[in-house]
Specification:
The protein is mainly beta. The chain has two domains: about 130 residues, Hotdog Thioesterase (Thiol Ester Dehydrase, Chain A), CATH 3.10.129; about 150 residues, Hotdog Thioesterase (Thiol Ester Dehydrase, Chain A). It contains two helices and 14 strands. The longest helix has 15 residues.
Length: about 300
């Protein structure tokens, strides 16, 4: 499932996902994009790490069976890992991939993102062959959200079209949804399954307005840093078409916030689910600001 998308067909801000140079067996180098906040957006680190894992798996084969098996290809089905230190923007990052397991149905890769000889993030990426299965079931998407045309495009330096809907109060002080987004890359993309999976992984970290209910009104009063990230890929989707992302803050205590997310395509098929914990600490004396990206238009 190695990526073959020509770089020029990908928006410039997202090109680091596909611009990974193979430096040797299971070793890839890329460059992180610039960032106004002094660290790389976590979704970029997740997406680059996933792409490195994809590149390390031989396309069109199951590793244990060998390239002449003629069996179905492997595709990612889950990713789990930790952010260890901030990833420096506008700098080289090396992705070291360790083959942990290869079987007839699964492959497991551990990816370490390294800068200046120091590990910055580490992820386990699991691959599975496509199987027909006997049951096709999913949790239905909530029905109380208008389509993307009902919302203005959020402002900011983003390589995608983001539409932000209001949170959904439960009526008892909690929220059924602490964040709801429509999002897509706003230009046609190649038919490259690995690229679209990695873009879904990139978008999955759009939790910055959702780890506290109504956190947009208090942006800039807290530091927030992702501690870990877990993804499950359920169905394919095109990320140059609208996907809907429903987020829910499950718990905020001890300066840690736990968030889960469900991503659906435009037809309501569940594409991806996410779980994440963040470190959220108040900044003494800080005044609320508008977020640097993701703000609603007036």
């Amino acid at each position: 499932m190695a990526a073959t998308a020509p770089t020029e067909e990908v928006p410039e801000e997202l090109r680091p996902i596909v611009d990974l140079e193979e430096q040797g067996p299971d070793r890839f180098a890329g460059r992180t994009p610039p960032s106004p906040v002094g660290r790389v957006f976590g979704g970029m680190v997740v997406a680059q790490s996933l792409m490195a894992a994809v590149r390390s798996v031989t396309p069109g084969t199951t590793p244990a069976a060998g390239p002449s098996s003629g069996g179905p290809a492997l595709a990612p089905h889950s990713l789990h890992g930790y952010f260890l230190q901030p990833v420096v923007p506008d700098a080289e990052v090396v992705f070291e991939v360790e083959p942990v397991r290869d079987s007839r149905s699964f492959a497991l890769r551990e990816v370490t993102a390294v800068q200046d000889g120091r590990p910055r993030a580490r992820f386990l990426c699991s691959f599975h062959i496509e199987e027909a299965g006997e049951v096709d079931y999913q949790l239905a998407p909530p029905t109380n959200m208008d389509g993307p045309e009902a919302f203005g495009r959020a402002e900011g330096p983003m390589p995608f079209d983001l539409r932000i809907a209001d949170p959904v109060p439960a009526g008892d002080g909690t929220f059924l949804a602490s964040g709801r987004h429509w999002v897509r890359v706003d230009r046609p993309l190649p038919d490259d399954a690995a690229l679209h999976l990695c873009l879904a992984a990139y978008f999955s970290d759009q939790t910055h307005l959702s780890f506290r209910p109504y956190s947009e009104q208090a942006w800039g009063t807290h530091t927030d840093a992702s501690l870990d990230h877990a993804l499950w890929f359920h169905r394919p989707a095109r990320l140059d078409q609208w996907v809907r992302y429903e987020l829910q803050a499950l718990s905020v205590r001890g300066n840690r916030a736990t968030v889960r997310g469900l991503m659906y395509d435009g037809d309501g098929a569940l594409v991806l689910s996410m779980a994440q914990e963040l470190l959220v600490r108040p900044i003494p004396g800080a005044e609320p600001q508008l977020p640097p990206w993701g703000r609603r238009p007036d």
